[in-house]
Design goal:
about 180 residues, alpha+beta, Aminopeptidase, 8-stranded mixed sheet, 5 helices, about 25% strand, globular, binds coenzyme A
């Protein structure tokens, strides 16, 4: 297994990963999000990672910064999206992608990493609703129990309650 940063020629592989991992209802929206995030020019940077098996891209994850309104001292990020192709699931690729991303964000001294997903899956990586509840998402959530947060490196405390805004690719009500 190799985890590497996304390169110029990865767009089609990324699209294929999401189109195979998500059902018909969600695959267009999520694959479009994954590809659109590649063009986000942000400070600090938006980044994507690929998991490879025998030279083939089998998984992808993206991290983009969030603006914490009224708190300019804290660097915040959101994890979205994440997928592993069905044939390669349950082999640790998803975990490896999350862990590598968290290590990068720990090195960047990010104060919080948010995700909107399945608590049963993300809970094992240290994500919890208690941390996320101080960060108000840009839209009302269809599944509020899936709003989770962690502190990369486990250092520091979440601050006061703040509203967040995301990069343009994520500011689509349908994603929430
Ligand atoms: C979720 C996903 C990325 C996990 O990738 P993966 O490479 O299979 O993950 P890992 O191998 O690191 O971990 C697998 C374990 O996670 C757990 N798991 C996987 N998906 C889960 C889910 N939706 N809910 C709860 N637990 C889940 C299982 O316990 C599994 O353990 P097992 O192999 O003993 O059954 C992958 O299943 C996927 O792409 N799913 C479809 C797209 C998706 O739902 N993306 C996440 C959006 S928030």
């Amino acid at each position: 297994m190799e985890i590497r940063t996304v390169g110029l020629g990865d767009t089609e592989s990324i699209r294929c990963i999401y189109r195979s991992a998500f059902d018909e209802k969600e695959r267009d929206l999520v694959s479009e999000l994954a590809v659109d995030l590649l063009s986000e020019k942000t400070v600090p940077s938006t980044f994507s990672l690929i998991a490879e098996s025998d030279g083939m891209a089998v998984g992808h994850i993206a991290f983009s910064p969030v603006t914490l309104q009224g708190d300019t001292n804290c660097i915040g990020y959101i994890l979205a999206p994440l997928a592993v192709i069905p044939d390669s699931q349950h082999a640790g690729f998803g975990s490896a992608l999350i862990e590598r991303g968290v290590a990068i964000l720990t090195a960047r001294e990010a104060g919080v990493l948010l995700v909107y997903g399945d608590p049963n899956y993300y809970g094992r990586f240290g994500f919890s609703p208690e941390i996320a509840e101080r960060y108000l998402p840009p839209y009302p959530l269809e599944h509020p129990f899936g709003w989770l947060g962690m502190i990369p490196g486990g250092i520091g405390e979440p601050g006061d309650t703040v509203r967040i805004s995301c990069v343009d690719s994520l500011e689509r009500p349908k994603l929430w």
